[in-house]
Amino acid sequence: MTTIDLATPPVDRQRKRPLIGLVLGSGAARGFAHIGVMQVLNAEGITPDIVVGTSMGALVGGCYATNHLDALEGWARSLTMRRIIGYLDVRFGGSGLIGGGRLANKLHESIGTTLIEDLPMRFAAIATEVGTGHEVWLTCGSLSLALRASYALPGVFPPVHVGRRWLVDGALVNPVPVSAARAFGARVVIAVNLDADRFGRGATIASHGADPGDGHPGDPPDDVRHFARLRSMFGAERALKRELIAGSARPSFSTVMIESFNIMQDRLTRMRLAGDPPDIHITPRIGHIGWLDFHRATEAIAVGRAAAEKALDSISETIAELR
Question: What pLDDT sits at residue 92?
Answer without folding.
Answer: 57
